[in-house]
Amino acid sequence: MRINNTIYLIGIFLFSLVGLCNGSRGNVQPNFLGCVDYCVRTECPTMKLPLSLRLTLWDCPENCRYMCMQKITDRALVENTPVYQYYGKWPFYRLWGIQEPASVLFSIGNGYVHYYYFGILRRDIPNAYYLKPFMLMFSLVGINAWIWSTVFHSRDFPLTEKLDYFSAGLFILYSLYYGVIRLFHIQNKVIIRLLTVVVTMAFLAHISYLSFYTFDYGYNMMASVIVGSMLLLLWVGWAILQYIKPENKHRRSYAYLVILSVAGTSAAMALELFDFPPFLRVFDAHSLWHFSTIPLMVLWYRFVLLDTPNEMRLGKY
Q1: Is the pLDDT of residue 8 over 70?
Q2: How far is residue 194 from each of residues 36, 92, 235, measured CA to CA in Å?
Q3: Other CB atoms closer than 10 Å to residue 207's CB: what's the count?
Q4: Up-side HSE of residue 37: CA atoms within 13 Å toward CB?
Q5: Higher pLDDT, 37 or 5
Q6: Rounded to the nearest 5 degrees, what angle is found at the Cα of 13, between the Cα atoms of 8 and 14?
Q7: Element (H, E) at 30
Q8: Largest CA distance in the chain
Q9: What is the C-alpha separation between 130 and 110, in angstroms, rounded?
Q10: pTM higher than 0.70 for the full model?
């Protein structure tokens, strides 16, 4: 019951994000619209954007929106009035054309963790261990997810948004797929193929719905909550059993690492609930969430590197 309550609370946290993401008021304010209109009419006919902005695909109207957003935010801070979001984003300072520098930096950090441990897994895990290919694919799927997170936070376009969401969804779904194979010691090739087909079809159906029917943020969040809750339940339940089951002769003393990693990642999502205007116009709750997942993923890989020799010693290969 305690685990179910935890998942329920996490679900509430995640669903609340939808409301937060819809809180853009700045881009409909008359002073913003007037500023942008004036800038486009007076500046765009003669303005030549710096090379960094042209390389990151900014155009003059977008630059006008950025300049007006910053000007209005400057005034709001001086007058102690509310700071608004614009088009779903806080008024971040850009850097070399990058829209959200902190989220980009931390996305790169997360991707590097997967890249670093991909090399370690490939070198240190024996080829005979049945989970090795799944471990390596886990790292590759993680690298892919954080590459597109980096791209999306650099420049927010409809295409980069979809690739970020789809890659993140694939990573969550693959994490569940890997967890089922590991926790139930599935080695039968037929069962693995059937499971692979089911997971693949579920993912294709998910992205097809979002791509060809409607890009529904609420539905996408709900899908992530369901899969993430299943993943949390499996790993945390397994880890707890390592410590409370008296007849367990092969307790994994390192199981706490998976609790810290999986449950910690879910709990870190609560940062999104406390969304706030970015500190120094750089660090917001979303970027801090990305920062928090870096050490949590290191803990996950530490768990994997301790778990593998133990499973092989017990003959689970």
Answers
A1: no
A2: 55, 46, 22
A3: 15
A4: 8
A5: 37
A6: 100
A7: helix 30-42
A8: 78
A9: 26
A10: yes
